[in-house]
């Protein structure tokens, strides 16, 4: 607030104090009990840690860009070149063997041996305001969070805590129909709370009244 409104507010003795609970930023009057600011985890008990791709090339501004990157990996006959393009991590290498993500028709063979056809890119929410495309192949993602993919459908909504860093800009919570990666402009990702625990809009993730 600013100007006359702010002066009237402070003159009335109602100076607001910021209160942070589980990444959900609220404002409470000075002296108000903390119970007036419930934790987001109390309202929506089930939450999942954000996605961690582990390599930036699996995300892009459009599907065509991702297909070009995938094809470059597939065409790399030299193992050293393929490894450099893949960018291995402690969680994923060309020799990682993992199953498909729920709802995604992708290969499961080790990428060191065969790459196969490009996975169909999917749209995701990247941070609070950006939309990107992602290759939804479990072999490419360090922490794909299969439990989120299992419940991601046209009925689902995700409430995303963006983490709190003092004096950092941006919203504290974002609601998205797209699967979010949990990226926070404050630099500290928060947790993801699906509205429903099961596919098809079944079993709301809400605490009993």
UniProtKB/TrEMBL annotation:
Residues 42-208 form the Type ISP restriction-modification enzyme LLaBIII C-terminal specificity domain. InterPro entries: Type_ISP_LLaBIII_C (IPR041635). Residues 1-20, 186-209 are annotated as: Disordered. This is Type ISP restriction-modification enzyme LLaBIII C-terminal specificity domain-containing protein. It comes from Streptomyces noursei.
């Amino acid at each position: 607030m600013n100007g006359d409104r702010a002066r009237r507010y402070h003159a009335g003795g109602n100076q607001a104090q910021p209160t942070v609970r589980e990444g959900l930023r609220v404002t409470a009057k000075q002296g108000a009990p903390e119970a007036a600011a419930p934790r987001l985890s109390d309202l929506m008990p089930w939450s999942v840690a954000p996605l961690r791709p582990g390599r930036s090339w699996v995300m892009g501004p459009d599907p065509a860009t991702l297909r070009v990157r995938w094809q470059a990996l597939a065409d790399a006959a030299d193992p050293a070149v393929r490894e450099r393009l893949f960018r291995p991590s402690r969680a994923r290498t060309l020799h990682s063997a993992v199953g498909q993500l729920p709802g995604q028709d992708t290969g499961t063979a080790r990428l060191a041996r065969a790459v196969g056809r490009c996975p169909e890119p999917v749209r995701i929410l990247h941070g609070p305001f950006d939309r990107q495309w992602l290759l939804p192949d479990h072999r490419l993602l360090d922490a794909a969070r299969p439990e989120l993919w299992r419940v991601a459908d046209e009925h689902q909504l995700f409430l995303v805590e963006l983490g709190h860093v003092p004096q950092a800009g941006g919203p504290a919570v974002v609601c998205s129909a797209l699967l979010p990666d949990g990226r926070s402009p404050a630099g500290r990702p928060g947790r993801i709370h699906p509205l429903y625990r099961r596919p098809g809009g079944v079993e709301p993730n809400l605490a009993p009244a």
